[in-house]
Amino acid sequence: MFKLISILLRGRAHDAEQAFADRNAVPLLAQQIRDAAQSIQSARRSVAVAIAQNEQEKGQHAAIVARIADLEVRASAALAKGNEGLAREAAEAIAYLEAERDASEKAQAQFTTSIDKLKAIVRASEARLQELQRGERLARATQEAQKLDVVVAGPGLATLDDAEETLARLRLRQSQNELTAAALKDMEGAIRPAGIIEKLANAGFGAPLRSSADDVLARLKSRITPAA
User: In this structure, are residues 135 and 25 in contact, taking their beta carbons and an 8 Å threshold?
Assistant: First the structure.
């Protein structure tokens, strides 16, 4: 019985942990991406250090090779003058330096191999990080869109419906006001005597109320005295 209870408790703990992770998936992803970015930055520094050490090793190798060449020249000169003892000392130094040279060349080969591998790992990691960053931006946008869907589908939908109804009523009221104002204007024109006279004059019944452009032009021409 105790075993079953223990299994059940562990199962519920796992479900709770999974539910918590699901609810906080986006911030969890963001933190994981930040951690990965820091790791990649550390890897870049490691590559830079390895490259610097390899360059230092190359410099030491060049110095060893130059010293070997110098000692060989001097040892040959000592032999030429019969100083075999001094030439032997130079030969021992040359043998020691040649061992150092061989070790340096081996170290350079190892550095080069390791640096190439590290560079490949960093490049692949950077590509994966960029893909994760794009995925995070998309996940955040999707989350915000889903929040909007929930708002619209819930109380927000009723709010939108109410706003649309209010706008429709407002437009209807404004249209009615415009039609009412136009009707009142027509009614006032029909009731006032001046309005009736204006309508009759415009229809050609009786003298016009205002001079036309032709009337004004004819009047102006009549004022002109013909030249003698």
Answer: no
pTM value? 0.52
* Whole-Å CA distances, 99 to 59, 103, 106, 193, 213: 16, 6, 11, 128, 119
Q: How confident is the model at residue 228 (pLDDT cuts 50, 70, 90)?
A: very low
Contact 130/38 with Cβ under 8 angstroms?
Answer: no
Nearest to 93 by CA among 111, 116, 68, 58: 68
133: Cβ–Cβ under 8 A, 6 or more apart, which residues? 33
